[in-house]
């Protein structure tokens, strides 16, 4: 009797032929080809499904593929439903790709040269795109949807629906569509950071008012988000962190909340938080309605904070704002890739970073490796030893704006709907979910 693996390979070999509606199975190796079948009554809505299945081993790799005509320069919405069985790392095994091609099936290029990064000044090839394919619960139907712009020279789009690297796995794809849609409106946001050492006064309550004039200046320049320093009510007091601690929400968040409401913007302020007997190094996000949107408790603690009795946080919250999703990290967090990566995985498009001091190369790395905007506010004199700056870092890790002098701010405008296409890699942020390795088990 033939083994299940052999039977699956034999079935997969027969599946080279085109199925209904132009879908064809593809695999780089016959011996690693999943079994392919269709169901006329399956799928999310009972109107049909494309099925891939594997046997023993993790060598499997293959996809359903279909090529459709497109008009260069237009936007298209990829939409599909998928249901997958339990597998070790579903996000790496089940995903979709879109390849932009000319009329001969060859790759095309984008229109503009790369502004930064690798091969700056050369026009990037339109690398494969990775629509958003959420994990979801095993054996449940999950909707996948993304809007993509076709390069000007594109004449067709090749859709690929993958199953790979999972033993005894099954995925069904259904209701797959790729339709022209209106171009999405830009999501422009003005990001600002304040470069200030709040030296005046020896009491925590003396510190927040020192930021008020600069917040007003940021508002005059139409800032949407303003980032302030770390543990700002502790800076320069000569007191212990415990003596400067307060509830969050509390007096400082109430003060900054009033400024946020007055100027109709978001403010991130670094504070020492007390909850009962526990102290945290916390970043608080205040919204334009004056309320506390949320807070982040610093997860990685340097020795000085451990010795001061600070407790680490455990979560990586990401908050919805009027312009997009915002995450926060604090100072020492920047030395570790896990924090910014966790925020990005949860959807952060902007990371606010109150930071006493850090290596700016790490700020650039966190921004670059996650394709996320980072807004830092530091107490370090940026002119000395090329150390930490108060600035805004873009998806390439480059500094878009920087505050040179204490008592000033830096501000810049970005479009959160504009993808960053790297030479060789394409839109790297879209690939993180399916390409990043599994986390280490402790």
UniProtKB/TrEMBL annotation:
Query: What's a Pfam family this protein contains?
Result: CN_hydrolase
Signal sequence segment: 1-17
Keyword set, alphabetical order: Hydrolase, Signal
UniProt superkingdom? Bacteria
The residue ranges of the CN hydrolase domain are: 189-416
Q: Which SUPFAM superfamilies match?
A: Carbon-nitrogen hydrolase (SSF56317)
Q: Which GO terms describe its molecular function?
A: hydrolase activity
Parts forming coiled coils: none
Q: Which PROSITE patterns match?
A: CN_HYDROLASE (PS50263)
Question: What protein does this entry describe?
Answer: Carbon-nitrogen hydrolase family protein
Q: Please report the organism this UniProt entry assigns to the protein.
A: Prosthecobacter fluviatilis
């Amino acid at each position: 009797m033939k083994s299940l693996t052999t039977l699956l390979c034999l079935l997969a070999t027969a599946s080279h032929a085109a199925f209904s509606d132009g879908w064809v199975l593809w695999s780089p190796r016959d011996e690693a080809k999943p079994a392919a079948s269709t169901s006329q009554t399956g799928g999310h809505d009972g109107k049909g499904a494309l099925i891939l299945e594997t046997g023993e081993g993790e060598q499997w790799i293959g996809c359903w593929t279909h090529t459709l005509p497109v008009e260069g320069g237009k936007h298209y919405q990829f939409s599909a439903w998928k249901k997958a069985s339990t597998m070790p790392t579903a996000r790496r095994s089940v995903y979709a790709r879109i390849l932009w091609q000319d009329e001969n099936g060859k790759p095309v290029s984008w229109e503009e040269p790369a502004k930064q990064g690798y091969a700056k000044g050369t026009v990037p090839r339109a690398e494969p795109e990775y629509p958003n394919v959420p994990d979801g619960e095993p054996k449940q139907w999950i909707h996948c949807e993304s809007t993509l712009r076709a390069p000007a020279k594109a004449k067709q789009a090749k859709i690929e629906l993958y199953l790979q690297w999972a033993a005894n796995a099954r995925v069904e794809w259904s209701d797959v569509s790729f339709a022209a849609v209106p171009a999405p409106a830009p999501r422009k946001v003005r990001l600002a950071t304040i470069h200030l050492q709040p030296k005046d006064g020896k009491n925590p309550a003396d510190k927040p008012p020192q930021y008020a004039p600069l917040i007003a200046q940021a508002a005059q320049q139409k800032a949407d988000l303003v980032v302030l320093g770390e543990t700002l009510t502790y800076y320069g007091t000569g007191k212990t962190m415990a003596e400067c601690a307060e509830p969050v929400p509390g007096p400082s968040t109430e003060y900054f909340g009033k400024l946020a409401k007055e100027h109709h913007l978001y403010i991130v302020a670094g504070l020492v938080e007390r909850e009962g007997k526990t102290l945290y190094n916390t970043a608080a996000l205040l919204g334009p309605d004056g309320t506390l949107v949320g807070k982040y408790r610093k997860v990685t603690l340097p020795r000085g904070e451990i010795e001061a009795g600070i407790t680490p946080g455990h979560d990586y919250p990401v908050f919805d704002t009027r312009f997009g999703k915002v995450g926060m990290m604090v100072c020492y967090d920047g030395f570790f890739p896990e924090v910014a990566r966790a925020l990005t995985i949860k959807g952060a498009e902007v990371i606010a970073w109150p930071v006493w001091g850090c290596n700016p190369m790490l700020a650039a790395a966190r921004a670059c490796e996650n394709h996320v905007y980072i807004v830092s506010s530091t107490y370090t004199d940026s002119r000395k030893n090329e150390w930490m700056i108060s600035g805004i870092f873009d998806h390439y890790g480059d500094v878009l704006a920087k505050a040179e002098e204490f008592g000033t701010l830096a501000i810049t405008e970005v479009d959160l709907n504009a993808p960053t296409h790297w030479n060789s890699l394409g839109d790297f942020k879209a690939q993180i979910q399916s390409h990043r390795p599994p986390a280490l088990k402790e």
